[in-house]
UniProtKB/TrEMBL annotation:
Cited Pfam families: ABC_tran (PF00005), BCA_ABC_TP_C (PF12399)
Record's GO cellular component terms: plasma membrane
Record's protein name: ABC transporter ATP-binding protein
Gene3D superfamilies the UniProt entry points to: P-loop containing nucleotide triphosphate hydrolases
Domain ABC transporter: 37-273
Domain of life, source organism: Bacteria
Record-linked SMART domains: AAA
Keywords carried by this UniProt record: ATP-binding, Nucleotide-binding, Transport
Organism: Cellulomonas uda
Length: 285
């Protein structure tokens, strides 16, 4: 990584374009109107260990749902089960499509996209190439060929949205951590994901990057269905519209931020016996 590239990466840090954000939410509303995620009796077992134990979850379009819970609560496993990466039983429906038992690539085609706790972009490829590949993944060959001559509109728009236009030709490997997460979100947008499941998207981000990411998710969440797994309580308090608290593979509590913070069982799990209501769920690690 050269010094030049590093400084270019630094310069575009935390610059999300408000106009581009407008563009991304300007998609016809009707495409999203009937979208919602409905999970019923979800169960995941690993060699006899029940990691997810009968979870129900309903997330509607326009909601910005946070999934929280102590380490090992089953948050990532739920995302894995919804996206076809963990074998599960129960029912998972999105946009009227039953997802359980479908291979992961079909779930992507049903409009479901996810990010991982560790960013999983192709480091050697440019930002643009990463987006281009994501955009092409759901398309038929003739469309792909027709669009080779220039940058497809949705890719250009995603670049603007995630604030990485100036770094389009830079290898993704030189991006700052936060920028890689934004690139991943951009890849979901060009894939046309209508349900986005984001696993700890702001972990390791600076305060400014978190703020920008929250704004980005809020706008995306106006039309798409967004589920965010997160430990960062300040981020949750600022941006969550609703919260599901998980503990040992089960739903412990659900509601608004204020409701779950006031729930004694949440206080108990996070702060331990005798901690009282003070700072309820306020200092969750
Ligand atoms: N492939 C696997 N094989 C066996 N056990 C697993 C597997 N994946 C997860 N687990 C176990 O399932 C439980 C839930 O794990 P999961 O990763 O979903 O937790 P999490 O809520 O995402 O935690 P964290 O906040 O640490 O990311 C843990 O006890 C974990 O050890
Ligand atoms: Mg996890």
């Amino acid at each position: 990584m050269s010094d030049d590239t590093t400084s270019a990466a630094d310069e575009v840090e935390v610059q999300l374009d408000p106009q581009a954000l407008e563009a991304v939410i300007a998609a016809p509303e009707s495409r999203f109107r009937h979208d919602y995620l409905e999970v019923r009796g979800l169960r995941v077992e690993f060699d006899g260990f029940v990691a997810v134990d009968g979870v129900d979850l309903t997330v509607t379009q326009g909601d910005l749902r946070f999934l929280i819970g102590p380490n090992g609560a089953g948050k990532t496993t739920i995302v894995d089960a919804i996206t076809g990466l963990a074998r599960c039983s129960g029912s998972v429906r999105f946009g009227g499509v039953d997802l359980v038992g479908r291979p992961a690539h079909r779930i992507v085609r049903a409009g479901v996209g996810r990010t991982f706790q560790t960013a999983s972009v192709f480091d050697e490829l440019s930002v643009l190439q990463n987006l281009d590949i994501a955009a092409g993944s759901g398309r038929r060959l003739p469309t792909l060929l027709r669009r080779r001559s220039g940058i497809p509109d949705e890719v250009a728009q995603a670049l603007e949205t995630i604030g990485l236009t100036a770094l389009a030709d830079a290898p993704a490997g030189v991006l700052a951590h936060g920028q890689k997460q934004w690139l991943e979100i951009g890849m979901l947008l060009v894939q046309d994901a209508r349900l986005l499941l984001l696993d700890e998207p702001v972990a390791g981000m600076s305060h400014a990057e978190r703020e920008q990411t929250g704004q980005l998710l809020r706008r995306i969440g106006e039309q798409r269905t967004v589920v965010v797994v997160e430990h960062d309580m300040e981020f949750l308090r600022t941006f969550a519209s609703s919260v599901t608290v998980l503990h040992q593979g089960r739903v412990l509590s659900e509601g608004s931020v204020a409701q779950v913070q006031a729930d004694p069982s949440v206080v108990e799990v996070y702060l331990g016996r005798g901690a009282g209501a003070r700072g309820a769920a306020g200092e969750v690690a």
